[in-house]
Amino acid sequence: MKISPSKLNSYLMFKLPSAYLCGVRTKYLDSDKCVVTVKHRWLNQNPFNSMFWAVQGMAAELTTGALVMSKIMESGQKISMLVANNNGSFSKKATGRISFECSQGNLVDEAIKKTIETKEGQTVWMNSVGKNSDGVEVSNFNFEWTLKVKS
User: Fold this and answer.
1) What is the sign, positive or negative, of the torsion defined by CA atoms of 7, 136, 92, 97?
2) What's the rounded Cα separation, in Å, for the pair 101 and 80?
3) What's domain 5-149's architecture?
4) In what side-by-side order are the strands of the sheet with 97-102?
5) Half-sphere exposure of residue 105, counting CA atoms within 13 Å on the CB side?
6) Which residue from 11, 49, 55, 133 has the highest number of Cβ atoms inside 10 Å of its Cβ?
7) How far apart are CA 91 and CA 18, in angstroms?
8) Nearest to residue 60, comparing CAs of 83, 35, 30, 80?
9) pTM exceeds cut of 0.85
10) pLDDT in tens, 121-145
């Protein structure tokens, strides 16, 4: 089964309802890139009238996690995935529609290949950048994913 944006959005509704209710939606997914958007609104705002940092983090994590999940499915192997570390920086108030993009599917390919070959866990750092509708960066997140073949 191939993962698509609509399947990911359905998954959010049933498995991650807080992300779904906050408006996190997958817009684009291919083997190299994932784009997720979220619109600033009353439900996901902070006291400073911008988007709460955790909502931005959910959207950013989904861009990286969707790539990891799709690559694991493509491999045909049973591989576990887990975020080991993350960090984020914020450069502008997040208002309006924010688009998060990760274009590092190639890094996941290498890590999966290595974990299958060596049977040892691998880590891969992936970056997701959030931009407003004017194309101005509002936040930048990094996630360290661990991958390990299940025994």
Assistant:
1) negative
2) 23
3) Roll (3.10)
4) 25-29, 34-39, 97-102, 122-131, 137-149, 79-90
5) 17
6) 55
7) 25
8) 35
9) yes
10) 999 999 999 999 999 999 999 999 9
**What's the rounded mean pLDDT across residues 44-68?**
97
pLDDT at res. 1: 64
Q: Which amino acid is at 7?
A: K
The domain locations on the chain are 5-149
Helix (H, G, I), strand (E, B) or coil at 1: coil
Percent composition of the chain: helix, strand, coil (DSSP 3-state, to 5) = 35, 35, 25
CA 75 – CA 96 distance, rounded (Å):
37
Q: Say how far apart CA 86 and CA 119 lie, in whole Å.
A: 24
**What average pLDDT is seen over the chain?**
97
Nearest Cα to 95, choosing from 54, 27, 42?
A: 42
